Amino acid sequence: MKDIFIVEDDTLIAMLLEDMLGDLGYRVCASAPDLERALATAKDTEFDAAILDVSLAGRSSLPVAKLLDERGKPYLYATGYGSAPEGSAGTLPVLRKPFQLSELEQAMKRLAEA
User: Fold this and answer.
1) CA–CA separation, 85 vs 87, rounded Å?
2) What residue ranges do the domains of the chain occupy?
3) 101-113 and 11-23 helices cross at what angle (nearest 10)?
4) What CA–CA distance (Å, rounded) separates 23 from 56?
5) Residues 57, 60, 63, 65: is their CA dihedral positive or negative?
6) How far from 53 is each of 68, 79, CA to CA, in Å?
7) Rounded CA separation 40/32 (Å)
């Protein structure tokens, strides 16, 4: 699991996440700041796993998660709301914002084991 797709509407958080993932040895191969681009990228791009912001400008990222489930792509949620959106799989790792590098590392390890 090396190539990561980031779905995050906050540019600064997306940049921080990309830097942190790089520090951990991952490569961000794609990112999307909104639901429409996230759905298109999730459908047409090759990657190993994804990190999804729960809320994209007030819209749920659950449609992206469902598409990733269909493709068999693992993902985790990053959220300031404290939990994954209603209707999502209950066993997914949830990374609570703000997070530290060590927390991201642990979440990625849990994702790889899932």
Assistant:
1) 6
2) 2-113
3) 70
4) 25
5) positive
6) 14, 6
7) 9
Note whether 19 and 13 are within 8 A (CB): no
| pLDDT tens by residue, 45-100 | 999 999 999 999 989 999 999 999 999 999 999 988 766 666 565 567 788 899 99
Evaluate if pTM is beyond 0.90.
yes
Q: Which residue type does 33 have?
A: P
Architecture of the structural domain at 2-113:
3-Layer(aba) Sandwich (3.40)
Query: How many residues belong to the chain?
Result: 114
CB-based contacts of 35, cutoff 8 Å, min separation 6: 56, 57, 59, 61, 63, 64
Tokens coding 95: 């990374």
Beta strands in the chain (DSSP E): 3-7, 27-32, 49-53, 55-56, 59-60, 75-79, 94-96
